[in-house]
Amino acid sequence: MGLFVAEGPKIIQDLLLSGLKLDSMYVTDASHDLADAFRANFGFSEGFVPVSSVQLQKLSALKTANTMLAVFHQPKEQIVSENGLLLALDMVRDPGNLGTIIRLCDWFGVTQLVCSNGTVDCFNPKVVQATMGSIARVSVVYLDLLEFVQHTKLPMYAAVMDGNNVYASKLPEQALLVMGNEANGISSEIASHIQHQITIPNFGTGNSAESLNVATATGILLSEFRRFTEK
Fold first, then answer.
1. Is the dihedral of CA 17, 113, 85, 133 positive or negative?
2. In the Cβ-directed half-sphere of 91, how many Cα atoms lie within 13 Å?
3. Bridge-partner residues for 158, per DSSP?
4. Which CATH number characterizes residue 68's domain?
5. Same domain? 194 vs 111
6. Distance between the two ends of the chain, CA-based, in angstroms?
7. Which of 7, 97, 106, 155 fits a disulfide with 215 by CB distance 3.0 to 4.6 angstroms?
8. Alpha helices of 76-199 — where are they, by DSSP H?
9. Domain span at residue 121?
10. 215: part of which helix (H) or strand (E)?
11. Within this chain, do residues 202 and 92 fall inside the same structural domain, yes or no?
């Protein structure tokens, strides 16, 4: 089982509360008392390493290190359950985008995120930081996305530039929503298997905005799916 790094008391506390297994924790004097509280509340007695701010900066992936860094065991990858609303990502490469999308899944109650094998690693330090702890509550599964869309029984929706207006579409409670790569969108091989193509219309004058960021678009579309679920 692999390990991953999380930085900052808030994220570390969220991961501990979610039951993730701690491997080790590196703490400066500024967070020593909080680390002691974590040890008492969560029952771990080993792996606590006092370090200086300079030492922590050398370990950190952040431009300016926080006061606490922890190493966790990666949770076991779950089998995909094709129930409810499922999100799939096709070759999303930016760590910030993936982290934000995981956080959006957590907010909108999407407990499973399916990623193509070419999508950025969800345990990349920048992804973990962007999730703000949501990485512990959303199951992320990497697989052959083309094979998955060929066999799923869920109705499939693709976010594309020239699809049907999402605000005029009736959306189901159970579905697979596929979001594409930042520059190239959804691959043609995958798009050819998707029955419903939807888009977020551009209301701007002059159409100066070329497209929406994939994380922003994901948030809008998940909100629309949930709006129909709650009716």
1. positive
2. 12
3. 178, 197
4. 3.30.1330.30
5. yes
6. 42
7. 97
8. 95-107, 125-131, 145-151, 188-191
9. 85-229
10. helix 214-229
11. yes
The pair of three-digit structure tokens given for residue 88, joined into one six-digit string: 């799939």
Quick one: 212 and 122 in the same domain?
Answer: yes
Residue 123 lies in a domain: yes
**What's the gap between Cα 89 and its chain centre?**
10
Nearest to 86 by CA among 140, 122, 130, 132: 140
Strand partners, 179: 89
pTM of the predicted protein model? 0.91
**Residues near 71 by beta carbon (within 8 Å), at least 6 away in sequence:** 3, 4, 5, 22, 23, 24, 25, 47
Name the residue among 161, 163, 191 with its Cα closest to residue 176: 191
Locate all alpha helices (DSSP H) within 18-71, ordered by sequence. 32-42, 53-59
Provide CB contacts within 8 A for 221, sequence distance 6+.
157, 159, 166, 177, 179, 198, 200
Q: What is the pLDDT of residues 160-219, one digit of tens each?
A: 988 999 999 999 999 999 999 999 999 999 999 999 999 999 887 666 667 789 999 999
Quick check: 211 and 172 in contact, CB under 8 A? no
Measure the CA–CA gap between 78 and 96, rounded to whole angstroms: 23
- Spatial neighbors of 85 by CB under 8 A, at least 6 apart, are 108, 109, 110, 173, 174, 175, 177, 222, 225, 226, 229
> SS3 for 156?
strand
91 plus 204 within the same structural domain: yes
Say if CB 143 and CB 114 are below 8 A apart.
yes
